[in-house]
Amino acid sequence: MTSAIEFKDVSRVYGDVRAVNGVSLRIATGEFFAMLGPSGSGKTTCLRLIAGFEAPDSGAVLLDGQDVTSRPPYERDVNTVFQDYALFPHMSVLENVAYGLRVRKVAGAEQTRRAMEMLELVKLGALAQRRPSQLSGGQRQRVSLARALINKPRVLLLDEPLGALDLKLREEMQIELKNLQRQLGITFIFVTHDQGEALSMADRVAVFNQGRIEQLDTPRMLYTRPATSFVARFVGSANVAEGELARRLMGSAEPFAIRAENIRIALPGESQDDNVIRCNGKLLDVQYHGAMSRCQVQLDTGEIFAAAVSEHSGNGRFAPGCAVVLSWTASDAVQLRSEPAA
Amino acid sequence: MNAFAASAPLQAGWSRRASTFLHGRPGFYLSLLLLPPLLWFGTVYLGSLFTLLANSFYAIDEFTAKIVYEPTLATFKQVLTQPAHIDIIVRTLVMAVAVTIACAVIAFPVANYMARYASPRMKALFYVGVMLPMWTSYLVKVYAWRLILAKQGILSWFVDTLGLTPVLEAVLRLPAVGGPSLASSYLGMFIVFVYMWLPYMILPLAAALERVPESLLQASADLGARPSQTFRNVVVPLALPGLAAGSVFTFSLTLGDYIIPSVVGAPGYFIGMMVYQQQGTAGNIPLAAAFSVVPIVLIMIYLTLAKRAGAFDAL
Fold first, then answer.
1. Residue A257 dihedral angles phi and psi, to the nearest 5°
2. Exposure pattern of A178-203 as b/e (b: 16+ CB <10 Å)?
């Protein structure tokens, strides 16, 4: 089976910055794929390489098994939802959505019919005659989505599509996007710096760092089995122990990660259950997050670890400054790949 | 000790009191600032314009050559019905339209390059280059062009060197645009007009194009538009306000100019020359005033058409 998108050792260099550095990946047809990473990690450049706004300096980009590396954007069967939506200000909502048909010389009546259909799909049929400037951010987002879907692309690219929306709207759109993707069966590739968004929406996630993919996996595997310390920290901000600390705690210099919710925090002298690994520290701060509170603990060796305490386990007895004991079971600690020397 | 306690007590000088007075009365403050320019604009500028307009409603006594101060439409009738006068208006209008179109066609690629592709250094160079001719005396440039376009001028020398003299001669033999030499043909006049007003088209156009976000062009290409389609459907509509502003300059400057038609080109009269001659040697102030109203009306018609075409929708 051919993949919807394939990267073969793709690199893109700006001056002396390798924005994308030898990336190879395959994205399956019908997949909801996320590219996750901090700003400047190369994820957006990868998206632009697929859309054709950028050309790689080396390597090849394949779309449905065909090499499209040197094809311009208007000859690629992919469409993009832009971060700033990029709606044409001089056209109505309907004209914006119909644009992809208009440039393909589809008959006028057919254009209107299909554009209206698309607008109904994103529940904006009533606003067809408005100008983009008369819409709210969420509505613009939907118009941009309808416009990108009208040509029935093989792949839909979404560049930080929810970044500009407020929290409630963002959660609604997450569910809506997911439903839309299931309904249409189109491959969605979406770029985000929000790990929560990537984990909750995507089938698979590629975590980018400094132009490379650190790990490409399902959300569950990324969270429970991060491969590198970068992934462990970036996805769900796990505690990472390296070098000397790792040796003292686990008896081996191999780095490992431990999630805050897998660490038990107790006062000295309290029962430690059967947790084998222990270390002493000082509580610096407690951040309240509702169901959980996150405790910042400075270990005796100087590193800062976070431990989560649930609301019902009586976290009231912890006050900043008090001595605490952290403990966890060896099986909760995840062995990480040693970082290659940079 | 409190560090703030050491600060000096507020000086109650007259300037501070004036500031406080004005701060509480923003309307008065604003009118104080606007009074001098408004006085200038109102009396000197609009006032003289209305005097001009008023003069166009008088007529000259054919026999005594004195102005009869009685409101009449006779002068306007004279402007709009005499074949020689209609010729002048049509000639000027056709030239203004041709110059405007040529300026737009030449300016668009230059402005587009400046706005989208030039490096910051190159862009600065282009802006200086576009404005540089404006730093030179207008008259010097016009007379320089007469020499450039003259029969033995550098241009015909250059054309001859390329072996294209027959082509030039063929062009000059064309009716209407041709003439004995470039310097004494409408074609030559057209070239000088385009040269003179080109910066006034490039600058507003570049400013308009600079405001078009890159992502709109990418979105257009992404949706399947070839570059020519993107240009037609996205770039041109969004550049229309700049194009409209630039064309108002080129159009009105050509309509009103009287030096270029009298130094370069064929002997046919233009509106500006007519105004100059009527108010000067001929002493027919009402006719000069009526001719001055023609460009004003033409520009108004032009702006109305531009607005109806949606040129100002994107503002």
1. -120, 145
2. eebbeeeebbbbbbbbbbebbbebbe
Distance from C-alpha of A195 to C-alpha of A306, rounded to nearest angstrom = 18
Angle, vertex CA A218, rays to CA A217 and CA A223, nearest 5: 90
CB contact under 8 A, B226 and A79: no
Question: Which of B215, B225, B314 has the CB atom closest to A86's CB atom?
Answer: B215
User: Residue A5 in 3-state DSSP?
Assistant: strand
In terms of Cα–Cα distance, which of A260, A262, A267 is closest to A294?
A: A260
Domains for chain A: give ranges and CATH numbers: 5-233 (3.40.50.300), 237-335 (2.40.50.100)
Query: Does the beta-carbon distance from A82 to B219 stay under 8 Å?
Result: yes
Residue-level pLDDT at A321:
87
Q: What is the pLDDT of residue A342?
A: 41
d(C-alpha A80, C-alpha A148), whole Å: 6
B13 vs B224 pLDDT, higher one? B224
> Which residues from A are below 8 Å from B216, CB to CB?
86, 88
For chain B, give the percent of residues with pLDDT over 90. 46
How far is C-alpha A288 from the chain's CA centre? 25
State which amino acid sits at residue A82.
F
Q: Which helix (H) or strand (E) holds A13?
A: strand A5-14
- Min CA distance, A327 vs chain B (Å)? 51
Question: B99 versus A336: which is more confidently predicted?
Answer: B99
Check CB contact of B214 with chain A, cutoff 8 Å.
no
Res. B193: pLDDT tops 70? yes
Identity of the amino acid at B263: V
Q: Does B87 touch chain A (CB under 8 A)?
A: no
User: Which residues of chain B neighbour A147 with C-beta distances below 8 Å?
Assistant: 219, 223
- Chain A to chain B, count of Cβ pairs less than 8 Å apart? 67
Tokens found for residue A202: 């995507």
pLDDT tens per residue, range A88-107: 999 999 999 999 999 999 99
ipTM beyond 0.90?
no
Kindly determine whether residue B222 and residue A102, on different chains, have CB atoms separated by under 8 Å: no
CATH H-level, domain B74-135+199-308: superfamily: MetI-like (1.10.3720.10)
Which spans in A191-337 are helix H? 195-201, 219-224, 229-234, 243-250
C-beta atoms of B216 and A88 within 8 A: yes
Are B222 and A74 in contact (CB < 8 Å)? Answer: yes
Crossing angle (nearest 10°) for helices B285-308 and B271-279: 150
- Quick one: pLDDT at residue A341? 41
Q: Which amino acid is at B76?
A: F
Phi, psi for residue B96 in degrees, rounded to 5: -65, -40
Residues in Cβ contact with A301 at an 8 Å cutoff, skipping those fewer than 6 apart: A244, A245, A248, A279
The residues, ordered by sequence, that sit 6+ positions from A75 with a Cβ below 8 Å of its Cβ are A52, A68
> What does the pLDDT look like over A55-93, one tens digit per residue?
999 999 999 999 999 999 999 999 999 999 999 999 999
Query: By CA distance, what is A133's nearest residue in B?
Result: B314
Instruction: Report pLDDT digits (tens) over A222-254.
Output: 999 999 999 999 998 889 988 888 888 877 778
Picking from A323-332, B50-59, B85-94, B304-313, which range would have the lowest pLDDT averaged per residue?
A: B304-313
